[in-house]
Amino acid sequence: MENLVLIVHIIVSLSVIGLVLIQHGKGADAGAAFGGGSSGSVFGVQGSSNFLTRATSICVTIFFCTSIALAFIASSKHEESSSADIAVENSELLEQNSQEATDNNSVSQDIPN
Protein backbone atom coordinates (compact mmCIF):
# COMPACT_ATOMS: atom_id res chain seq x y z
CA MET A 1 0.00 0.00 0.00
CA GLU A 2 2.80 2.37 0.91
CA ASN A 3 4.60 1.70 -2.37
CA LEU A 4 1.45 2.40 -4.39
CA VAL A 5 0.86 5.72 -2.61
CA LEU A 6 4.53 6.62 -3.06
CA ILE A 7 4.44 5.87 -6.79
CA VAL A 8 1.26 7.96 -7.24
CA HIS A 9 2.88 10.76 -5.19
CA ILE A 10 5.98 10.84 -7.41
CA ILE A 11 3.98 10.75 -10.65
CA VAL A 12 1.65 13.53 -9.48
CA SER A 13 4.56 15.68 -8.26
CA LEU A 14 6.26 15.40 -11.65
CA SER A 15 2.94 16.23 -13.32
CA VAL A 16 2.53 19.36 -11.19
CA ILE A 17 6.04 20.49 -12.08
CA GLY A 18 5.39 19.94 -15.79
CA LEU A 19 2.00 21.64 -15.77
CA VAL A 20 3.30 24.68 -13.93
CA LEU A 21 6.22 25.04 -16.31
CA ILE A 22 4.12 24.95 -19.48
CA GLN A 23 1.50 27.44 -18.29
CA HIS A 24 1.48 31.03 -19.50
CA GLY A 25 2.33 33.38 -16.65
CA LYS A 26 0.14 36.33 -15.70
CA GLY A 27 3.18 38.61 -15.59
CA ALA A 28 3.71 38.22 -19.34
CA ASP A 29 0.47 40.09 -20.04
CA ALA A 30 1.48 43.00 -17.83
CA GLY A 31 4.33 43.91 -20.20
CA ALA A 32 1.97 43.81 -23.17
CA ALA A 33 -0.37 46.31 -21.48
CA PHE A 34 2.34 48.98 -21.46
CA GLY A 35 2.77 49.13 -25.21
CA GLY A 36 3.47 45.69 -26.60
CA GLY A 37 0.27 43.88 -27.38
CA SER A 38 -3.44 43.86 -26.89
CA SER A 39 -4.27 43.28 -23.25
CA GLY A 40 -7.42 44.37 -21.45
CA SER A 41 -5.72 45.65 -18.30
CA VAL A 42 -2.36 45.87 -16.59
CA PHE A 43 -2.72 42.44 -14.98
CA GLY A 44 -4.16 40.67 -18.01
CA VAL A 45 -7.63 39.51 -18.85
CA GLN A 46 -9.11 37.02 -16.39
CA GLY A 47 -10.85 34.41 -18.47
CA SER A 48 -12.41 31.14 -17.48
CA SER A 49 -9.89 28.63 -16.26
CA ASN A 50 -8.58 26.51 -19.07
CA PHE A 51 -7.54 22.87 -19.12
CA LEU A 52 -4.05 23.47 -17.75
CA THR A 53 -5.19 25.33 -14.65
CA ARG A 54 -7.87 22.75 -13.89
CA ALA A 55 -5.43 19.88 -14.39
CA THR A 56 -2.92 21.64 -12.13
CA SER A 57 -5.47 22.14 -9.37
CA ILE A 58 -6.53 18.48 -9.56
CA CYS A 59 -2.90 17.30 -9.47
CA VAL A 60 -2.12 19.57 -6.51
CA THR A 61 -5.14 18.21 -4.63
CA ILE A 62 -4.01 14.63 -5.26
CA PHE A 63 -0.46 15.62 -4.23
CA PHE A 64 -1.66 16.94 -0.87
CA CYS A 65 -3.82 13.87 -0.28
CA THR A 66 -0.92 11.51 -0.99
CA SER A 67 1.34 13.63 1.24
CA ILE A 68 -1.10 13.28 4.12
CA ALA A 69 -1.46 9.55 3.44
CA LEU A 70 2.32 9.04 3.45
CA ALA A 71 2.63 11.00 6.70
CA PHE A 72 -0.11 8.86 8.27
CA ILE A 73 1.57 5.64 7.10
CA ALA A 74 4.94 6.75 8.47
CA SER A 75 3.47 7.72 11.84
CA SER A 76 1.57 4.44 12.16
CA LYS A 77 4.80 2.51 11.54
CA HIS A 78 6.53 4.24 14.44
CA GLU A 79 3.60 3.74 16.83
CA GLU A 80 4.04 -0.02 16.72
CA SER A 81 7.18 0.13 18.85
CA SER A 82 7.56 2.39 21.84
CA SER A 83 10.57 4.63 22.34
CA ALA A 84 11.73 2.52 25.31
CA ASP A 85 11.80 -0.60 23.11
CA ILE A 86 13.77 1.26 20.45
CA ALA A 87 16.28 2.48 23.06
CA VAL A 88 16.76 -1.04 24.43
CA GLU A 89 17.24 -2.47 20.94
CA ASN A 90 19.75 0.24 20.06
CA SER A 91 21.75 -0.33 23.24
CA GLU A 92 21.80 -4.09 22.62
CA LEU A 93 23.01 -3.57 19.05
CA LEU A 94 25.67 -1.13 20.21
CA GLU A 95 26.87 -3.56 22.87
CA GLN A 96 26.92 -6.41 20.37
CA ASN A 97 28.87 -4.34 17.82
CA SER A 98 31.42 -3.24 20.42
CA GLN A 99 31.87 -6.89 21.52
CA GLU A 100 32.44 -7.96 17.90
CA ALA A 101 34.94 -5.14 17.41
CA THR A 102 36.89 -6.22 20.51
CA ASP A 103 36.89 -9.83 19.33
CA ASN A 104 38.18 -8.80 15.89
CA ASN A 105 40.91 -6.57 17.32
CA SER A 106 42.27 -9.09 19.82
CA VAL A 107 45.50 -10.80 18.83
CA SER A 108 45.68 -14.55 18.90
CA GLN A 109 47.76 -15.87 21.78
CA ASP A 110 48.93 -18.89 19.77
CA ILE A 111 51.85 -16.96 18.30
CA PRO A 112 54.92 -16.97 20.60
CA ASN A 113 56.67 -13.68 21.28
How would you describe this protein?
- The radius of gyration is 29 Å and the shape is elongated.
- It has helices at 2-22, 27-36, 51-79, 83-105.
- The longest helix has 29 residues, at 51-79.
- It contains four helices and no strands.
- The relative contact order is 0.10.
- The protein has one domain.
- It is mainly alpha-helical.
- The model has no long low-confidence stretch (mean pLDDT 77).
Largest sheet: none
What is the succession of H and E elements? HHHH
Tally the structural domains.
Answer: 1
- Unreliable stretches, pLDDT < 50, 5 or more residues? none
Q: What's the total count of β strands?
A: 0
The helix/strand class is mainly alpha
CA radius of gyration is 29 Å
Main features:
elongated, 73% helix
Q: Layout of helices and strands, plus pairs?
A:
Layout (H helix, E strand, L loop, with lengths): L1 H21 L4 H10 L14 H29 L3 H23 L8
